[in-house]
UniProtKB/TrEMBL annotation:
Pfam (any one): ADH_zinc_N
Domain of life: Bacteria
Limits of the Enoyl reductase (ER) domain: 17-329
Protein name from the UniProt record: Quinone oxidoreductase
Entry-linked InterPro entries: ADH-like_C, ADH-like_N, ER, GroES-like_sf, NAD(P)-bd_dom_sf, QOR-like, Quin_OxRdtase/zeta-crystal_CS
GO molecular function, one term: mRNA 3'-UTR AU-rich region binding
Upper lineage: Bacteria, Pseudomonadati, Pseudomonadota, Betaproteobacteria, Burkholderiales
CDD domains reported in the protein's UniProt record: QOR2
Phosphoprotein in keyword set: no
Sorted UniProt keywords: NADP, Oxidoreductase
Organism field: Xenophilus arseniciresistens
Protein's UniProt keywords contain Isomerase: no
GO cellular component: cytosol
Amino acid sequence: MKPPITTTTAIQIQRTGGPEVLEAITVEVAAPAPGEVRIRQSAIGLNFADVYQRRGSHGPHAATQFPLVLGAQGAGVIEAVGEGVHDLQVGQSVAYFHPGAYQVLRNVPASRVLALPAGISEEVAGATLLRGLTAEYLLHRLYRVQPGDRVLVHAAAGGMGVILCQWARALGATVIGTVGSAAKQTVALAHGCHHVIDYRREDFAARTMEVTEGQGVAVVYDAVGKDVFLPSLDCLQPMGMAINYGTASGDVEAFDLQRLHAKSLIVSRPTLRTFISRPEDLRRGAATLWQAVQEGLVRLEVNHRYALADVRQAHADIEGRATMGAVVLVP
């Protein structure tokens, strides 16, 4: 017997703008359709991608149709399964990656849902799945980090940075991180960085070349964008790759392609959605992530918790760079 239609709390926006556009509403949740599961969430991830979407910034989003429920990741327990779902069961702890996460109870396509293995809590998975999957493709697929590589990670104390730095070091790379304060410098050093540069006090490009004895780095992982992109090109070794996967300081604007010519540099602007568009890629990426956690190569941590009702404050804090590490919304 299918569960009846029920109501739940969701956070939606009717227009783009600041945190004030986030509104709590009551919505109906029908029985899961064929191929879906109903999840009662215990943890909803908050990522800077949510801020981009709330602002109406450029990103890997479909054309916005309002009203819109933000968020793309969460975790909880399956309450019901739709017809044709055989590999997931009621009562199972799961995480998922699918738009519309800012909602207490919701239906999600089973193809986007991941059963959680032993040792991975719902809170950790809900808060860090997007970042962990992003780190997996950045380190293992887009550029495959090898022992002996030198890598530069911008925002090394942020939610993505702490995962990238730990994992890159475990893969045998020399990790250089940039941060914006002494407190963040301590966090970066505790999460895999060999060298940390406070970009507010030093020229990070000059310091990177000094640390690498003039050789440069094989890859730059850049979640900052406009403020650091061009100087990052000066940090690369011949045939190095600059990967801009986030734009916290603004979009990277047009630049002279000849900047890449002298050292045959490579530039990429990827999005996670492409790398996990097929269910098998999502599962393979998650399996690699879970294995790294279980082997102790990567620590997934939740650093800040906000009630779902306090989502406006959570957005203001992450946008104002007042947070370090992963943030979770608790329904």
